[in-house]
């Protein structure tokens, strides 16, 4: 079900284009059939023309139904399915598993230290709406990290939090939740599953129409757990 919805949601423009072309062809056939009906002088000719009209009308009805179904799927149904509403990033389904699955490309992430500024500031955070209050920007973390913050906007849909090697933009989803949070625990992140290094951590909130606010992003340094 989710796979089918993802296909129709992700290819909406292409599907509408196909339906538009089909509608043009069907309308042309309908007009031609009406002309045939007007020029028909014999019963068999009129019967054939009527069949062509019925076929063209049926095709138009089917195309209208398919277009309406696609509209309902993309506008009303898809935004309420978190697996489809997630931003297009190399993420996992956050509603199936609570922790990230680390791909081979991320495990191969170089251990060469990136430029890291302990006094780095958060980006895009809005007090009382979208905030990560713990850990703080520039914190050094290890092991299981509890994330505290706020996810509370008008027409709230759900939130998710993600990580990316610093400056790469390769975001991976850690977890998602449908509950509003106000300066409380958002969830946790098992940093022992990633290569030690410098990372961005971001909080993303979607409203109930599938629109995403600008994310709250903070830089962190992950170190290996103490032996």
What does this structure look like?
By secondary structure, the protein is an alpha+beta fold. It has two domains: 2-80; 85-222, Immunoglobulin-like. The protein has helices at 2-10, 12-39, 43-77, 82-85, 104-107, and strands spanning 130-134, 140-141, 144-151, 156-165, 172-177, 181-190, 197-207, 216-222. The strands form two sheets. Strands 2-8-7-4-5 form a five-stranded mixed sheet, with no helix packed on it. It has a three-stranded antiparallel sheet with strand order 1-3-6, with no helix packed on it. Helix 2 (12-39) packs antiparallel against helix 3. It is rod-shaped. The two termini are 45 Å apart.
CATH superfamily name of the largest domain?
Immunoglobulins
Uncertain stretches of 5 or more adjacent residues = 83-118
User: What would the principal axes of the Cα set say about the shape?
Assistant: rod-shaped
What is the CATH T-level topology of the largest domain? Answer: Immunoglobulin-like
The fraction of residues in strands falls at 25-35%
SS-derived structural category:
alpha+beta
């Amino acid at each position: 079900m989710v796979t089918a919805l993802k296909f129709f949601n992700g290819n909406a423009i292409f599907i509408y284009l196909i339906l538009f072309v089909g509608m043009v062809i069907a309308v042309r056939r309908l007009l031609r059939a009406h002309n045939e009906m007007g020029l028909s002088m014999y019963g068999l000719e009129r019967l054939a023309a009527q069949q062509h009209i019925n076929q063209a009308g049926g095709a138009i009805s089917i195309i209208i139904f398919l277009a309406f179904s696609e509209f309902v799927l993309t506008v009303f149904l898809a935004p309420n399915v978190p697996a489809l509403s997630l931003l297009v990033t190399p993420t996992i389904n956050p509603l199936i598993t609570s922790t990230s699955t680390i791909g081979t490309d991320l495990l191969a992430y170089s251990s060469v230290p990136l430029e890291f500024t302990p006094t780095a500031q958060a980006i895009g955070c809005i007090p009382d709406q979208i905030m990560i209050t713990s850990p703080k920007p520039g914190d050094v973390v290890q092991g299981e990290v509890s994330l505290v913050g706020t996810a509370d906007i008008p027409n709230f849909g759900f939130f998710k939090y993600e990580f990316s090697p610093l400056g790469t933009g390769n975001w991976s989803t850690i977890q998602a939740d449908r509950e509003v949070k106000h300066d409380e625990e958002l969830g946790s992140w098992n940093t022992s599953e990633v290569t030690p290094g410098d990372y961005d951590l971001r909080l993303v909130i979607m409203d109930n129409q599938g629109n995403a606010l600008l994310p709250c992003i903070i830089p962190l340094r992950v170190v290996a757990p103490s032996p």
